[in-house]
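Deliverable D2.4 — example input (structure tokens):
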């Protein structure tokens, strides 16, 4: 049984100009201990799909799916109380822009403690020890001191490590990382990616990596889904995708990598439009 199985997922938003279709019948399957990359340019529906799984889309969104199951449980029929027991514990998510995702009014330690308080039966002393342990596990220096720091007193990379610590606090079976390195410099990006992969390998959890960076895909993924304008263009294991991309849009993405440039000009998606299919 797949860890996560979604069939024919459609998401439509009500707007002042009429309905906007963000996803148009996309399928996703994630096995345990697998790293799935969902790749595509901004607006392709990558984040929308995972926010639908998390139940975090606004009321303006209409979500339909033939199947949306986690470990065989139908996520579409869970009550609010049942969903809260799953989301944040068994399924967790790292959001874009870590500084914006943390509450500026509370210390790092307080925010990590709240996650444990909600989803575990640990005592106050046990939660305090677990917070320090989590901060150490994600490589935060001097956790005994940092536990009392506020988000603005930490760098972007450190805040992202806090978000990762928060996401893995309850040992989730599935971790969704939404553009986890977007706001970070190149050196910190590498550290964060290495950390996520190491945590995934150590725990055996499933990992969904949402990105537009094909370099991230090459480094982290076992399998890749390529999206464009709310549709799945291609799905393949990572080696097959890079060695023999089948879809014109996938070839367009790969050709846009600087190392694949032919001449002085990088190709654009429109250069491949004549091949059809998108």
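Example output (designed residues):
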């Amino acid at each position: 049984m797949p860890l996560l199985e979604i069939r024919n997922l459609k998401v439509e938003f009500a707007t002042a100009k009429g309905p906007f279709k963000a996803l148009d019948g996309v399928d996703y399957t994630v096995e345990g201990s697998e790293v799935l990359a969902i790749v595509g340019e901004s607006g392709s529906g990558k984040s929308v799909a995972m926010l639908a799984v998390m139940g975090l889309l606004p009321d303006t969104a209409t979500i339909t799916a033939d199947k949306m199951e986690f470990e065989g449980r139908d996520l579409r029929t869970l009550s609010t109380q049942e969903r809260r027991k799953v989301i944040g514990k068994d399924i967790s998510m790292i959001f874009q822009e870590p500084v914006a995702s943390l509450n500026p009014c509370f210390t790092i330690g307080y925010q990590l403690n709240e996650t444990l308080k909600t989803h575990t039966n640990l005592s106050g002393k046990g939660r305090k020890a677990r917070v320090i342990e989590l901060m150490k596990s994600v490589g935060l220096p001097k956790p005994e001191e940092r536990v009392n720091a506020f988000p603005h007193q930490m760098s972007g990379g450190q805040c992202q490590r806090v978000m990762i610590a928060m996401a893995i606090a309850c040992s989730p079976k599935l971790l969704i990382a939404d553009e986890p390195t977007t706001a970070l410099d190149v050196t910190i990006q590498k550290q964060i990616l290495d950390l996520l992969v190491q945590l995934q390998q150590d725990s055996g959890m499933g990992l969904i990596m949402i990105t537009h960076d094909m370099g991230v895909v090459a480094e982290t993924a076992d399998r890749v889904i390529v999206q464009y304008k709310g549709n799945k263009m291609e799905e393949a294991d990572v080696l097959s995708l890079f060695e023999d991309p089948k879809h014109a849009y996938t070839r367009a993405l790969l050709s846009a990598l600087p190392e694949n440039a032919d001449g002085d000009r990088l190709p654009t998606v429109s250069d491949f439009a004549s091949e059809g299919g998108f």
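The first helix runs from residue 46 to 54.
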